[in-house]
Write a structure and sequence with these properties.
Layout lengths: L51 E3 L2 H8 L6 E4 L5 E2 L2 E2 L5 E3 L3 E3 L10 H15 L7 E4 L5 H12 L5 E4 L2 H7 L5 E3 L9
Parallel strand pairs: 1-8, 2-6, 2-7, 7-8
Antiparallel strand pairs: 3-4, 5-9
């Protein structure tokens, strides 16, 4: 159980010494037991993700242009019904990205976990030290969850692009239209 400390009590540690979850003490049901965000995905996010490094737009742009560009993964969710993704509008993305919808959910079904794990393995060629950048939109916990999950599977060079496609577009950088990677629920 996590003890949350109020900021207004005399003698309490200053904000820098508190656990980052103390910022969310108003709603104890935002995270599951394993620490994944499970609701209100589109809301302010922290300045770090477990197992990953925060990356800015300028840093990401430089990494993409380098000799060894990272694997880019957009985790923007998409409705899935009766074996089909229900896409109503084009999904913008950073050029070179793969779109893996729904893998950033806090408590995904096993099929989505397998889909994520398989696509990470395929995209990295099984090298867990290959640079991976995960993103969604600004203020979206799904990319935060995806970084945490990839880290739990042993991936070591993870970057969280917190600004997501919104930050990329605000910087007026080139974008592309993404299609979701093939998902087979009954493998």
């Amino acid at each position: 159980m996590l003890l949350l400390i109020s900021l207004n009590t005399p003698g309490s540690p200053d904000k820098a010494d508190q656990h980052w979850l103390s910022n969310y003490q108003d709603d104890p049901f935002l995270f599951n037991f394993d620490g994944y965000r499970i609701t209100r995905y589109r809301s302010p996010t922290p300045d770090h993700a477990e197992g990953g490094q925060l990356i800015t737009t300028a840093e990401l742009n430089a990494k993409i242009s380098s000799e060894t560009p990272p694997l880019l993964i957009n985790v923007q969710p998409l409705q899935w019904r009766q074996g089909v993704f229900l896409q109503q509008q084009p999904q913008p993305g950073i050029p070179g990205s793969r779109w893996l919808p729904n893998v950033g959910q806090g408590e995904p079904e096993q099929a989505w976990m397998d889909y994520f794990r398989d696509n990470l393995y395929q995209g990295t060629g099984g090298r867990k030290n290959l640079a991976i950048v995960l993103y969604c939109t600004a203020d979206c916990w799904m990319s935060w969850n995806a970084v945490k999950r990839a880290y739990s599977w042993g991936y070591t060079e993870l970057y969280w692009y917190k600004e997501g496609i919104d930050g990329w577009q605000e910087a007026d950088l080139p974008e592309t239209t993404l299609s979701p990677e093939l998902f087979q629920a009954n493998k």
